[in-house]
Design goal:
four-stranded antiparallel beta sheet, 3 helices, two-stranded antiparallel sheet, alpha+beta, extended, single chain
Length: 150
């Protein structure tokens, strides 16, 4: 006697993690930026281009030119994942572009209240060290202006 069993229900598909790194942004030309994508922390795709078109930016996968035209080396297999992939990469591009146009604030390093130069200066003749060095130069026929006077 054969048992009639239904196949187990297919597990719910989990959303794959898509990590995008945008490189070399350009505001002119047909290539707007290059990107690297890591899928699920397990598979990396390099040399993805964000291209400019009349309809707006789009994602171009790495590929090669053949006798029959341009062929992608790798690509999303389903329409749903293709849409999600494009949206994720373009969102990362727009975020990176927005950060470039944000005014950057830089905090100046704090300056010491006292330079401490007096404490570290080499001991010299008594009195003002600057006057002592100028007196020595003038005795040799040199002025503090850097030109010799005769």
């Amino acid at each position: 006697m054969a048992k009639n069993s239904a196949p187990p229900p297919a597990p719910e598909p989990q959303l794959m993690d898509i990590e995008v790194n945008i490189h070399s942004i350009s505001t002119r030309g047909s290539v707007l930026a290059n990107a690297s994508v890591t899928l699920g922390g397990c598979f990396a795709v390099r040399n993805i281009k964000i291209m400019n078109s009349e309809k707006g930016p789009f994602v171009s996968m790495p590929g090669y030119r053949s006798a029959n035209g341009f062929k992608d080396v790798c690509f999303p297999c389903t329409q749903e994942f293709h849409k999600r992939f494009q949206q994720t990469v373009l969102a990362a591009y727009r975020q990176e572009l927005a950060q470039l146009h944000e005014p950057q604030t830089y905090e100046r390093p704090r300056q010491r209240e006292s330079s401490g130069f007096e404490e570290r200066a080499a001991p010299g003749p008594a009195g003002d060290p600057e006057e002592a060095s100028l007196d020595g130069l003038e005795e040799e026929g040199h002025s503090s202006g850097g030109m010799a006077m005769q």
